[in-house]
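Format notes (please read before filing issues)

Several people have asked whether sequences and structure tokens are stored in separate files. They are not. Every record keeps both together, in the order shown below: the sequence lines, then the token lines. Line labels are part of the format and must not be stripped during preprocessing.
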Amino acid sequence: MEIFIRQISEKDVFPVAALCGQLGYDLSIDQTRENIKAVLSTNNHDGFVVVFGEEIIGWIGVGVAIQIESPACCEIRGLVVDDRYRNRGVGKMLVEKAKQWCHEKGYKSLRLRCNMKRTQTHLFYQHLNFRVVKEQKVFEIETG
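Then the structure lines:
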């Protein structure tokens, strides 16, 4: 069977939502659909899925991160590979696609954030030559 990467689309909402659940993010189908639409509505974000046969087995979200205090760069906003297909090079394919997207946009670096408890995932990224540049906490407040 063929394996390939293509741009995410709204029709991918059900498998993408299921894969989000594997990461512990249980979004509704409607919210997942709205998120996909929002990503596709801007030139500064994109999403890609890996298809094996007829099945979506992973996805990656990438976007441009613009800050006042540092140069703009690209950032992996999310990545998941179906747990049945991990350790088979699928994640690496998705990261390579994100690197290509970043290069095509004219940016020189790709960064990501990863939960501290995902130690196996840290090893995956380090194996792909990502380096740890900072550790931080994420704070959130309700605004309405």
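For reference, the curators noted about this record: The chain has four helices and five strands. Helices lie at 13-22, 29-40, 90-105, 119-127.
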